[in-house]
Amino acid sequence: MLDSSGPPLSAGMLEMSLREPPPASLGSWGLLLLSLLLAPLACPACPAPCECSEPARTVKCVLKELSAVPAEIPRYTRNLFITGNQIAHISSRDFQGLPNLVTLSLANNRISAVESQAFSALPSLRYLDLSNNRLATIHPDAFNSRNNSIRELNLSRSLYNSSAIRPVAAAIVQGGFRSLSKLELTNNEIVYLPLGMFSSLRSLRHLDLRNNSLVDIKNSTFAGLDLEHLDLTLNALKTLRIEALAELGRQLRLRLFLRDNPFVCNCDIEDLVSWLNQSQQVADVEKLACVFPRHLQNTSLMDLAGAELGCHTSQHRKNTLQTSYVFLGVVLGIIGVVFLFVLYLNRRGIKTWVNSTRDACRNFMEEYRYRYEIDSDPRVTQVSTLDI
Ligand SMILES: *[C@@H]1O[C@H](CO)[C@@H](O)[C@H](O)[C@H]1NC(C)=O
Ligand SMILES: *[C@@H]1O[C@H](CO)[C@@H](O)[C@H](O)[C@H]1NC(C)=O
Ligand SMILES: *[C@@H]1O[C@H](CO)[C@@H](O)[C@H](O)[C@H]1NC(C)=O
Ligand SMILES: *[C@@H]1O[C@H](CO)[C@@H](O)[C@H](O)[C@H]1NC(C)=O
Ligand SMILES: *[C@@H]1O[C@H](CO)[C@@H](O)[C@H](O)[C@H]1NC(C)=O
Ligand SMILES: *[C@@H]1O[C@H](CO)[C@@H](O)[C@H](O)[C@H]1NC(C)=O
Ligand SMILES: *[C@@H]1O[C@H](CO)[C@@H](O)[C@H](O)[C@H]1NC(C)=O
């Protein structure tokens, strides 16, 4: 504890004494002397591969093949860029003694694991960039801290694969993000958004989900938020359901972006088309077009007349067809039952009829055999042909 608090304190005093003309009091002279003596120890060192600028309060360790966060980052640092390295793991000990750190970028690394409370020693942190990483195992308390004050979180192209959305969603839910106003989740191949993933983000205004593979938006997905900018371009949405549209309609300041989705122009898109017709919220409404079916490809959703979908007429026809099949079935059933009933009532008559038919048959057969025998008699045949 003494080690970590000692040097920064004297660094601060050194800074003060170098900037301001020393006041002419004995105590201050003593302090100056003390800080001069401590100067070699207190000089805010710059970690070897990094570049530090004290006036700009900025430290950059860019493209240095670092495999871990460097130790002894100067306490004055407000902006820290450790980008384009090979860092794979962020632990809770990596960022200590940086009370002034506002911006932290860890973009373009190979971060796959983030431990519990990884950023909790950074009380001033506002901007956190984890884009272009390989997040796979993220502790649910990774972002959690007593006072999470992060305002912007960049998770673009940061998931290892689409399964990583589950731990990331859990870490967002449990992160205690009271001030998060901007969240970027672009280019992540996300197929679905876990239920309630955004529900705790009361300050969220700007949500970017561009270039994922979202197939459906549930009405609970953005429920209770008050978004101003929601980007869903380049996803896999075939339509949006009326409940989800109603939820978005409730967010009065929202600008929604929907282009480059594979809209399927069948009856399921009717609700969306009529919603688009009366909503002012979709910023790129002119760019929305059908992808299927083929004869409607590239037709603007705004130009789709109700007749082209032909939902109501075909629905009607289908219904009448179904009704007539049912009717036919009932009629056939009744006829069958009546027939069986008639058979039952006439069972005696039928028996007699069967017997008499059998007798008639027998007689007929006998007669036939007789005639056959005569026919096959050569003499008789001869006689008859001679007659003709
Ligand atoms: C977030 O990261 C992506 C990818 O690195 C980058 O293009 C984008 O500009 C970043 N957003 C902000 C606000 O810096
Ligand atoms: C949390 O942060 C806010 C602003 O960043 C500050 O006003 C508040 O005092 C902090 N609360 C605690 C418990 O640190
Ligand atoms: C994502 O990667 C993990 C770890 O390699 C694997 O277990 C999981 O099946 C992968 N998920 C997908 C959708 O590929
Ligand atoms: C979309 O994201 C994928 C990675 O998930 C990337 O390869 C592709 O270039 C991105 N496309 C656009 C247009 O940004
Ligand atoms: C979502 O829609 C269903 C009906 O489709 C409704 O029962 C449910 O209450 C809705 N949920 C929210 C959060 O609006
Ligand atoms: C769009 O709204 C107008 C009136 O505002 C209406 O005349 C028109 O039929 C609607 N079109 C569709 C496809 O709903
Ligand atoms: C629709 O537009 C795309 C890209 O502009 C084009 O490749 C395709 O041939 C068009 N299809 C039709 C049916 O016009």
UniProtKB/TrEMBL annotation:
Residues in the signal sequence: 1-44
Domain called LRRCT: residue spans: 261-312
Source taxon at top rank: Eukaryota
Keywords carried by this UniProt record: Leucine-rich repeat, Membrane, Repeat, Signal, Transmembrane, Transmembrane helix
A biological-process GO annotation: negative regulation of canonical Wnt signaling pathway
Membrane found in the keyword field: yes
UniProt keyword Transmembrane helix present: yes
Alphabetical list of PANTHER family matching this protein: LP06937P, TROPHOBLAST GLYCOPROTEIN
Protein's UniProt name: Trophoblast glycoprotein
Organism: Chrysemys picta bellii
